[in-house]
Design brief:
The chain is an all-alpha fold. The protein contains 3 helices and no strands. The protein starts with a helix and ends with a helix.
C-alpha cells in the first residue's frame, strides 16, 4: 500500500507535516478569527433580539396609546354631544321664557290700552255730557228768549246729563 501511495505522489513525511501545519492554521484561525467572529455574531444576534423585543414593546405601547386616544376621542365626542343637547335644551327653555315674557308684556300692554281706552271713553263721555248740557242750556235760552239763571242752567244741565247717560 505504501507503493500505491507513492505512485500517487503522496509522501508520508510531507503529508504529516502538512497535516500538522493545517492543524496549527486551523487552531490559529479558530482561536483568533473564528471565535471573535462567533462572539461578534452572538452579540449581533442579542442586539437584534433586544431590538425586536423593544420594537414589540413599542408596538404594544403604540397600540395602547391608540386605544387611549380612541377612548378619549369617544369621551370628548360624547361630552360634545351632551353639551350640544344641553345648549339646545337651554335655548328651548330660554325661547319658552322669552315667549312667556313677550306674551305677558303683550297682555300688560293690552290691559293698559284697555284701561286707557276706558279712561278716554269715560273722559269723552263726561266731556260729551258737559257739551250736550251746555248746548241744551244754550238752545233752551235761545228758544225761550230769556236769560237763564245759574240755577236754571244747573237744573237743565243735570236733566240733559241724565238723559245722555241713560
Amino acid at each position: 500500500m505504501g507503493e500505491t501511495l507513492q505512485t500517487l505522489g503522496i509522501q508520508w513525511p510531507k503529508l504529516i507535516a502538512q497535516t500538522i501545519n493545517f492543524a496549527i492554521v486551523l487552531f490559529v484561525l479558530w482561536k483568533w478569527a473564528y471565535q471573535p467572529v462567533l462572539r461578534m455574531l452572538e452579540l449581533r444576534r442579542e442586539k437584534i433580539a433586544e431590538s425586536m423585543a423593544q420594537a414589540e414593546r413599542i408596538r404594544a405601547e403604540l397600540e395602547a396609546t391608540e386605544r387611549q386616544r380612541q377612548e378619549i376621542l369617544q369621551r370628548a365626542h360624547a361630552q360634545a354631544q351632551q353639551l350640544i343637547e344641553e345648549a339646545r335644551q337651554a335655548a328651548a327653555r330660554l325661547h319658552a321664557q322669552e315667549t312667556q315674557r313677550a306674551v305677558a308684556t303683550a297682555e300688560q300692554i293690552l290691559a293698559k290700552a284697555r284701561e286707557a281706552a276706558a279712561l278716554d271713553r269715560a273722559r269723552m263721555l263726561a266731556e260729551l255730557k258737559r257739551e250736550v248740557g251746555r248746548l241744551v242750556v244754550q238752545t233752551t235760552a235761545a228758544v225761550t228768549g230769556k236769560v237763564l239763571t245759574p240755577e236754571d242752567q244747573r237744573r237743565i244741565l243735570e236733566e240733559a246729563t241724565r238723559q245722555v247717560a241713560a
